[in-house]
């Protein structure tokens, strides 16, 4: 009697498979559902030259996330190293660095509206970041330019030449400040911030800052904050503060150095950025003093804080954890009290580098 | 920012003739392919040949010029030492050898030893790796009646391949002879492939994959009264190639170039004395030069032009002596000095001195064989700037045993335990080491238990060989990349642990000739469960490590009738994941690829000649071994060779 019951075995296997399938994508504890927000898009960089950048969407209502929603909706993939994502008007813009494209997307449906190529002949411009002003988008690219894109026609109207390998940009006092890193010149980085007149769309001056600037942000008290990386050898990393009226440097500090590429987020009288010691530094923009070494108060462990974002409607600080940069990361949210919001972290794709919040 | 992983390629080449058949009933598991079998495997280079071995995972980036490295039993390419005629082809910069650079026209035998070869008289380096890939050159076998042997051939076909080669063997007198080879490869490297995911519905063409490579070598052999041998060999390799890179959606233009120029001289002297004393002296000096050019790099110059140079001086002395009948002991000492230069930012210009001592013993008693050795390693480094690796002094043992349970059957039981390590490579330590790196050697413990069975009959099945080995490897202090928010501060550290359990099975069958017809068949199967056991809190804990298929099967079959032979190969791999998360989105699909070849031997006048046609990927399957590096579809190769 050696009859093995395949039918029972098959049923058992199917059941186990079905049960484990059900568990996917749902988080165990419910997340506090914010009033106006529909969800959050997480742009996962993937790895450079791995062609695996993805977009994860976390839906607040269903409390479930969809990995790689961009290809699920469009049938095409983002490409290599999505570096920045922002919503302006009714459109969402995704800057894809190595693929050298700007994907223009409907944030409500994730449907691609247009893919703008940033190739210059056969050479990739390598776009990095995008900011907006009066129906124009400004896109910094490693080839030393800031492209001016009309957000209605989606045509690039002009390339403004700036410094070497420009990175983040900020608009303050009706001027565009561009951090020129020169990061691709090892040992000889750039050390300037280009100031662009938003009326004439020309560079009016270059402000000297700590070498190799990548991050830039502004507050409501007339300060422009620039985080630089130095040359990793003799020049230390540091923070430079520029007065947006005179464009004079008012402070240079190595002690206030930040983590590479961190967003500098303004929230009322504070700016936040990832500090050199991987905390979320809280800096008082009014008193110009460090308020707290770390926004997080509940000792939540974040392996590799890669970037931050602030949702001012729900007053939550989001921290992207890249883990080991080769496997799935996580997205954490912290309330005003610096404590982890119930239900977080949520799983992201590889190297989550930017998030954008979508309204209902 | 954006530093380039340019460094993983360089190498040399080798020369050829027919050699002896390796005894499969070795104390450690060993697999080999002889020169007559290369054509059966559609093999153009060593990488094509070794992919048929059990326990082997060839990482193939696709195309004629694509990097091809070997990982044996999931340990990674840095744990396999590649020996040319017993002397290591060493690359201290990145620790791995690109096997696509070894053309086979001057090779007599390729053999893979798990653990190490079981000969006691070897350089210490042969004891100092997780596994050994031994490549043997063709040795002249000439007589006074025919004091020369000239071989000329040309291969050509898909990818714009033109590959002429030439070999000249000459007997000089009773003691001296020489062999010289030249092999030139040109290919435009183009092939069509299907891009999935960018919305295109036509086939794309793989570009910037062109190769020009020249390999030349010459060796003189001196042989005296069956007891003394001397070989002095000079090898030169020069190549220029495009790097087609990963497929990047919406940005198909790649312009990066790689140039290699490698040269070495190696000498080997061996002598067996009447009292059973054997000595072996090996020397080598080598220089490996690499140039990496990115003509579109977005720095001030508008290009990136990097030069790397490794120079090495190496000396080994080994002695073996039979103390009692059935008991032989040996001692080997190897010293080497490597100097590395690179014109990259903040480079350390390291110099590494290595001294290896090996004491080994082999005891044969009745049906038992016991072998063991102790390897003592000393490594010291100096740098011009930054911090050198701390000096290392490490002692590691290996134990091997085999047992023949029955006198009259071909069954052999074998087992080995090998505790070994690899030093961090110079790239892991110093390539864009913006912050000082503290890296310890990577440790591997290997346990193997297996059996071999061989039957020779007078029946139709003339020869059956079956081997099966089960193994467990534990990797500790695995050296892994530690990326940073800032790509410029990329680092390496000992943070990984891997548990590897596997089974290798090989089967070979050869039939008798029946009215001019004979059949041969071989199969290699590999099962590997290689899981990450580094960190319980990580999402990759207990998941299969990247690019490691659970099942791999290589099937080869051939039929021979008089001067005509046909061979078919099928290689099957189950799916892999390209990250440590075994999720569907990171899956690289499995594949099955079939190759076939036909060979015809004939006489051109009085001269033996051979014509062959090979077809690779017969079913034109769209697949990749490394994600984003598509493999070619169906391709053809035509070869003609004549012997004078």
Describe the protein in words:
The complex is a heterodimer of chains A (360) and B (644). Chain A is mainly beta and 360 residues long. Chain A contains 2 helices and 30 strands. Chain A has helices spanning 6-23, 69-74; strands spanning 37-44, 54-59, 64-66, 82-88, 91-96, 101-105, 112-117, 119-120, 123-124, 127-133, 136-141, 145-150, 156-161, 166-172, 175-180, 192-197, 202-208, 213-218, 223-228, 238-243, 249-253, 265-267, 270-274, 280-284, 289-292, 305-311, 316-321, 328-334, 346-350, 352-359. In chain A, strand 18 (213-218) and strand 19 (223-228) form a beta hairpin. Chain A starts with 5 loop residues before the first helix and ends with a strand. Mean pLDDT of chain A is 91; it is low at 1-28. Chain B is mainly β and 644 residues long. Chain B is built from 3 helices and 35 strands. Chain B has a 22-stranded antiparallel barrel. Chain B is globular and about 65 Å long. Chain B starts with 29 loop residues before the first strand and ends with a strand. At the A-B interface, strand 9 and strand 29 of A face strand 24 of B.
Question: What's a concise summary of this model?
Answer:
The complex is a heterodimer of chains A (360) and B (644). With 360 residues, chain A is mainly beta. Chain A is 7% helix and 47% strand.
Largest interface: A-B, 61 and 46 residues
Q: How would you write the strand order of the largest sheet of chain A?
A: 3-2-1-30
Note the beta-strand portion of chain B.
over 45%
- Give the end-to-end Cα distance of chain A, rounded to a whole number of Å: 64 Å
The helix content of chain B is under 10%
Number of DSSP E strands of chain B: 35
Number-wise, the strands of chain A total: 30
Determine the number of helices of chain B (DSSP H or I, runs of at least 4 residues): 3
Low-confidence stretches of chain B: 1-23
**Separation of the first and last Cα atoms of chain B:** 56 Å
What would CATH call the homologous superfamily of the domain at 167-295 in chain A? YVTN repeat-like/Quinoprotein amine dehydrogenase
- The CATH topology of the domain at 167-295 in chain A turns out to be Methylamine Dehydrogenase, Chain H
Question: How would you name the oligomeric state of the polypeptide chains in this document?
Answer: heterodimer
Uncertain runs of chain A with pLDDT below 50, 5 residues or more? 1-28
Helix content of chain A: under 10%
Which sheet architecture does the biggest sheet of chain B show?
22 strands, antiparallel, barrel
The class by helix and strand makeup of chain A works out as mainly beta
* Average pLDDT for all residues of chain A: 91
Task: Name the shape of chain A in a single word.
Answer: globular
Class inferred from helices and paired strands of chain B: mainly beta
């Amino acid at each position: 009697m050696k009859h093995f019951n395949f039918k029972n075995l098959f049923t058992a296997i199917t059941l186990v498979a079905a049960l484990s399938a059900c568990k996917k994508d749902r988080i165990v504890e419910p997340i506090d559902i914010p009033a106006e927000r529909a969800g959050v898009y997480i742009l996962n960089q993937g790895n450079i030259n791995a062609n695996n950048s993805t977009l994860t969407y976390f839906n607040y209502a269903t409390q479930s996330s969809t990995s790689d929603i961009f290809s699920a909706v469009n049938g095409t993939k983002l490409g290599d190293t999505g570096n920045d994502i922002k919503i302006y008007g009714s459109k969402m813009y995704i800057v894809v660095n190595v693929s050298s494209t700007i994907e223009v997307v409907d944030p409500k449906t994730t449907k691609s509206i247009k893919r703008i190529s940033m190739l210059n002949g056969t050479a990739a411009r390598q776009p990095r970041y995008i900011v907006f002003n009066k129906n124009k988008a400004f896109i910094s690219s490693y080839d030393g330019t800031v492209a001016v894109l009309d957000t209605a026609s989606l045509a690039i109207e002009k390339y403004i030449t700036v410094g070497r390998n420009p990175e983040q940009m900020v608009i303050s006092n009706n001027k565009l400040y561009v951090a020129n890193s020169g990061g691709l010149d090892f040992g000889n980085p750039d050390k300037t911030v280009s100031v662009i007149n938003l009326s004439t769309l020309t560079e009016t001056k270059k402000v000297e800052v700590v070498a190799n600037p990548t991050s830039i942000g502004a507050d409501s008290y007339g300060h422009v904050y620039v985080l630089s990386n130095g040359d990793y050898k003799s020049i230390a990393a540091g923070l430079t503060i520029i007065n947006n009226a005179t464009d004079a440097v008012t402070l240079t500090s190595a002690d206030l150095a930040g983590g590479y590429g961190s967003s500098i987020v303004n929230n009322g009288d504070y700016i936040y950025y990832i500090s050199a010691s991987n905390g979320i530094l809280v800096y008082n923009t009014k008193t110009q003093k460090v308020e707290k070494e770390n926004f997080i108060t509940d000792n939540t462990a974040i392996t590799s804080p890669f970037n931050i974002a602030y949702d001012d409607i729900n007053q939550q600080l989001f921290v992207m954890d890249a883990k080991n940069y080769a496997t799935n990361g996580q997205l954490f949210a912290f309330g005003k009290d610096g404590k982890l919001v119930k239900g977080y972290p949520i799983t992201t794709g590889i190297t989550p580098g930017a998030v954008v919040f979508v309204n209902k | 920012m954006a530093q380039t992983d340019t460094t993983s390629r360089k190498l040399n080449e080798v020369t050829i003739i027919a050699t002896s058949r390796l005894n499969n009933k070795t104390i450690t598991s060993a697999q080999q392919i002889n020169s007559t079998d290369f054509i059966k495997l559609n093999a153009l280079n060593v990488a094509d040949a070794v992919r048929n071995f059990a326990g082997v995972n060839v990482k193939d980036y696709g195309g004629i010029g694509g990097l091809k490295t070997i990982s044996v039993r999931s340990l990674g390419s840095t744990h396999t030492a590649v020996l040319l005629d017993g002397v290591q082809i060493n690359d201290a910069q990145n620790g791995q050898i690109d096997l696509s650079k070894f053309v086979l026209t001057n090779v007599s035998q390729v053999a893979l030893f798990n653990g190490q070869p079981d000969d006691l008289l070897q350089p210490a380096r042969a004891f100092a790796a997780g596994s050994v890939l031994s490549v043997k050159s063709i040795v002249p076998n000439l007589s006074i009646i025919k004091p020369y042997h000239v071989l000329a051939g040309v291969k050509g076909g898909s990818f714009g391949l033109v590959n002429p080669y030439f070999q000249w063997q000459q007997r000089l007198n009773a003691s001296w002879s020489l062999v010289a080879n030249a092999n030139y490869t040109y290919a435009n490297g183009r092939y069509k492939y299907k891009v999935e995911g960018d919305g295109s519905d036509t086939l794309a063409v793989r570009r910037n994959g062109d190769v020009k490579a020249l390999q030349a070598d010459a060796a003189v052999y001196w042989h005296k009264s069956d007891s003394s041998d001397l070989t002095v060999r000079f090898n030169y390799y020069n190549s220029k190639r495009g790097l087609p890179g990963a497929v990047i959606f919406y940005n198909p233009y790649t312009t990066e170039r790689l140039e290699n120029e490698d040269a070495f001289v190696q000498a080997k002297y061996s002598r067996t004395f009447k009292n059973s004393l054997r000595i072996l002296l090996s020397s080598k000096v080598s220089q490996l030069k690499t140039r990496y050019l990115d003509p579109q790099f977005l720095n001030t110059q508008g290009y990136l032009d990097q030069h790397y140079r490794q120079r090495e001086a190496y000396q080994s002395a080994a002695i073996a002596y039979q103390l009692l009948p059935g008991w032989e002991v040996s001692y080997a000492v190897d010293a080497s000095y490597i100097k590395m230069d690179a014109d990259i930012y903040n480079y350390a210009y390291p110099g590494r001195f290595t001294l290896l001592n090996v004491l080994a013993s082999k005891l044969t008693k009745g049906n038992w064989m016991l072998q063991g050795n102790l390897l003592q390693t000393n490594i010291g480094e100096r740098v011009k700037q930054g911090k050198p690796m701390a000096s290392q002094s490490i002692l590691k043992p290996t134990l091997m045993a085999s047992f023949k349970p029955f006198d009259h059957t071909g069954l052999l039981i074998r087992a080995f335990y090998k505790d070994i390590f690899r030093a961090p490579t110079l790239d892991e330590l110093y390539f864009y080491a913006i912050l000082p790196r503290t890296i310890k050697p990577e440790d591997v413990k290997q346990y193997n238990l297996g059996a071999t069975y061989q039957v020779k009959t007078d029946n139709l099945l003339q020869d059956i060989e079956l081997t099966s080995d089960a193994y467990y490897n534990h990797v500790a202090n695995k050296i892994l990349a530690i990326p940073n928010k800032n790509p410029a501060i990329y680092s390496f550290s000992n943070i990984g642990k891997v548990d590897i359990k596997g089974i290798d099975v090989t089967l070979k069958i050869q039939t008798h000739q029946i009215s001019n017809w004979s059949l041969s068949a071989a199969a290699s199967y590999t099962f590997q469960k290689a899981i990450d056991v580094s960190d319980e809190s990580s999402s990759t804990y207990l998941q299969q490590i990247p690019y490691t298929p659970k099942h791999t099967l290589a099937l080869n079959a051939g039929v021979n009738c008089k001067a005509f032979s046909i061979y078919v190969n099928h290689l099957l791999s189950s799916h892999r994941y390209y990250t440590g998360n075994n999720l569907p989105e990171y899956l690289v699909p499995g594949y099955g690829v079939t190759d076939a070849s036909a060979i015809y031997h004939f006489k051109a006048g009085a001269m033996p000649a051979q014509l062959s046609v090979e077809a690779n990927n017969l079913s034109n399957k769209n697949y990749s071994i490394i994600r984003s590096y598509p493999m070619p579809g169906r391709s053809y190769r035509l070869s003609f060779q004549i012997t004078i």
